[in-house]
Amino acid sequence: MSTADGSLPPPPPFADDFRAVVTAELTAAGFTLLDWEPGGVNVRPPGGGDRQYVGLANVYRRANAADRADWPGMVREFLDHRAELLQASVIPNDLGTIVDRLRPRLGRPCDRSDKTPPWGIPLPGTGLEINLVVDFPHGMVYVTGPMLARSRLKAEDLLDVALENLRAATPGDYFERASDELDIYIGHAGDGYDAARALLIEELMPDAPAGFWVAIPSREELAVWPVSFPAIGRVHVLKMFADENYREHAYPVTDDVFWVWRGTWYRFGIALKGDDLVIDAPEPFGEALQELQGDDPPQ
Questions:
Q1: Nearby residues of 222 by Cβ (< 8 Å), 6 or more positions away
Q2: Contact residues for 53 (Cβ-Cβ < 8 A; gap 6+)
Q3: Which residue in 1, 51, 200, 219 could disulfide with 251, CB within 3.0 to 4.6 Å?
Q4: CA distances from 149 to 95, 133, 144, 259 (A)
């Protein structure tokens, strides 16, 4: 849900006692805690270096099923397994030597109060942000301004590389139709970049004259529905999917539904008021439907 000014609300925090345990264990290991995200925390490694992201959603779920007395050991063990990733030396001075590991990230805007925030650009019309990350088997590291400066590379050029890497890492059968009744397609590769694949929608899906409705409730889920006249009366189903999965799944992104047409993103308002479906569509949607008229007449 968006705020009145169009920005996303602050992320819901972990329970205070869990945050306290994580803070204590990170501090004991020499890390500096920078800020929290919905699914984890950003830290600076011992001895300085660029910020690193630590995903905590999985260990948090396990902790909630265990005694609180066991939490310090669980968190410590989890951090030990990620020790190599969290070291400052994990990223070489020249990003050009690891371009094959670059990936785009699409999610909530990162905190800009830190001295070295991640590089990022807004995705217009969404309130979301595109970042660059370095992919590792058990996590990711944000690309920051200092990393780019040391590498003497332009972020925009590296983003093109990252998108190409994501294309290459996307299976040919990535999308699966949700049901025989609805032509909603779900993408889930399990690699942490499903939300980012929304940036490739118009390449991954067959052409749709009026574009696509898109939902990215979490980092691990992408739902796409080609716009058609029959689908308009049932588009609330996609909103319900976005609401439920944003609320229940780890690494939440947004409960908004978007409309993507000709490379441009728009928020697409959907609400059920009693038995009435209320749609707040962006202005160009009418033009898209006019173009669709000849290909897909109303039923």
A1: 186, 187, 188, 194, 195, 197, 198, 214, 215, 216
A2: 37, 40, 41, 42, 133, 139, 140, 141, 142
A3: 219
A4: 10, 15, 9, 36
Q: Tokens 């920078």 sit at which residue? A: 34
The pair of three-digit structure tokens given for residue 142, joined into one six-digit string: 């944000």
- Domain ranges, ordered by start, for the chain: 1-90, 92-169, 175-292
What does each C-alpha distance from 170 to 118, 167, 194, 215, 248 come to in angstroms?
A: 25, 5, 9, 18, 25
Task: Give me the helices (H) in 145-223, please.
Answer: 145-151, 155-168, 201-204
Whole-model pTM? 0.77
Instruction: Please state at what angle helix 71-81 crosses helix 57-64, rounded to 10 degrees.
Output: 160
Strands 120-123 and 40-44 turn out to be unpaired
Write down the pLDDT at residue 2. 44
pLDDT in tens, 69-126: 999 999 998 888 776 666 655 677 789 999 999 999 999 888 766 667 789 999 999 9
Tokens at 236, concatenated: 């609330």
